Amino acid sequence: MTRYDILNMGRSSIDLYANDVGAPFINIQSFAAYVGGSPTNISVGARRLGLKSALLTAVGDDPVGDFVLHFLQNEGVETRFIPRKPGYRTSAVVLGIEPPDKFPLVYYRDNCADIQLTIDDVLAAPIAQSRVLQFAGTNLSQEPSRSATIFAAEQARRHRVPVVLDIDFRPDQWHDPRAFGVAIRAVMPLVDIVIGTQDELNAAMLQDPEQMRLEHSQISDAHVSGDVQAAIEALLGYGAQAVVEKRGAQGAAVHTPEETIIAAGYPVEVYNILGAGDAFAAGFLYGYVQGWDWYKAARLGNACGAIVVTKHGCANFMPTMPEVEAFIQPHGGL
Predict the structure, then answer these.
(1) Strand runs labelled E in 146-251
(2) Which CATH number does 6-331 carry?
(3) pTM assigned to the model
(4) Percentage with pLDDT > 90 across the chain
(5) 169 vs 134: CA distance, rounded Å
(6) Which of 74, 285, 311, 324 is deepest in the core (most CB within 10 A)?
(7) 2: burial class by Cβ within 10 Å (0-12, 13-18, 19+)?
(8) Bridge partners, residue 54, by sequence
């Protein structure tokens, strides 16, 4: 029996966003405290749109964990599958905001709780009772989260639950950023839908040893050149139904083995790009769960992302469906 529309697995954190918008990081005077982490953001976004969402992350036995759980419970996200990890800390992220294109962020994930998710935690989660399992690529950066995530994908495949991978490329979370692609390619046979930017898609498929040597510095800076179309075709070759390419202001493209569907974006003035991709994923997956076609699902994702880039944070500013409907009306709808 289905109990949840979506089960999200991976990072959670307290996010400290600079209140001094436009100020260089060294001149920041204060921060606003929000909840973050890619799968956590997507879970909140999906819930605000109307889905029944559950989250599989982990928090420390600390006040920051209390902060995260309190927010999620108020949002209506199912938290009963979120274990506490004594001896580990709930992670944190500190973020600067310097529009239009500088958004420095620092991760505090040493000894963090969510990377301690285990196979036992997965066994306690409602994978078979969910309509979609979504996880982030960062889950694969360390053990035991890596094995737990692969096991979760195996369980989802066993129960015919679609598996969605948000690539979530964070180079500084890997001992060698080139290992990122190795891990992503290893899990791809279990994945039905891939979501990522052009840089992320290229990073996932960067395999040529000489190219990897020459571009190591670029990978470390989260900028990976390459033939994105070749990367998309390679990812589809693993058996994915669709590769969803996030194109920022240009919207999104959904690549399937048969066709490519272009969904235009919505014109807005950028305030803060951090979290916009998670808002896109929440909207896109809402449409997917509802059985919408790829185009309409991507347009909803674009609308959610466009709304969030005008806001100060991410999870705390995810739009509700009435807010999306009001936003898209002047722009011709979905």
Answers:
(1) 163-166, 193-197, 242-246
(2) 3.40.1190.20
(3) 0.95
(4) 86
(5) 15
(6) 285
(7) exposed
(8) 7, 78
